[in-house]
């Protein structure tokens, strides 16, 4: 009286899914907390007039998203590994909410691509200014280096020789400023961004299907066990 082949496959798919989700969740939460409580950025959150700035909103999103992902992982991993129906039901509900949110965010990012691109560029400028004023905060430096190498840009000027944050720029000669590149990249790749959101939503739906199959398998096993003991005793 155990799970059949399909149930076992779904169980290990969910375990793998939760492992990947946990890694991403810890990365988001760790970066968000570092930016929130770092000595060079903590003061921004204590100034009321800056509470609506792109940087504050971006850090808040990172912390919230990372926390939600880890909560989902906790229910999913416990339910899959221990074959607990209650945890899998909660996990399934959370996946439905996340899948709907992913699809809506993808559609919103596509229809409002100019505004979203400008907001992301503003978030970059805020991080750049904090890095320069904060004497090179390591957390912000790592983030800027990743952005510069990914997009092939260098700071707010694009010229490495005069950049205040030149140590975060790529080794190659660059003549593109990052705020302009970020806005253009998001606008020109809006369809790709929407596809990523929709693809992530499809991945969540796949995990939801596996959770549903595993729930049915666990229910069947429990019913067989109940019938067995009823027949014996």
Q: Would you summarize the structure shown here?
A:
The chain has about 230 residues and is mainly α. The mean pLDDT is about 80.
Total helix count?
Answer: 7
Based on secondary structure, the structural category is: mainly alpha
Percentage of β-strand residues: under 5%
Instruction: Write down the Rg.
Output: 23 Å
Shape: elongated
Percent in helix: over 70%
Number of strands: 0
Average per-residue pLDDT, rounded, comes to 79
Strand/helix succession: HHHHHHH
Distance between the termini: 18 Å
- Spans of at least 5 consecutive residues whose pLDDT stays below 50 are none
For the largest beta-sheet, the strand count, sense and barrel status come to: none
Protein name: CD9 antigen-like isoform X2
Transmembrane segments: 12-35, 55-76, 88-110, 192-215
GO cellular component, one term: endomembrane system
Pfam families: Tetraspanin (PF00335)
Kindly describe this structure.
The chain has 233 residues and is an all-alpha fold. Helix content is 76%, strand content 0%. It is built from seven helices and no strands. Keywords: Glycoprotein, Membrane, Transmembrane, Transmembrane helix. Belongs to the tetraspanin (TM4SF) family. It is a multi-pass membrane protein. One of its GO terms (cellular component) is endomembrane system. It holds the Pfam family Tetraspanin.
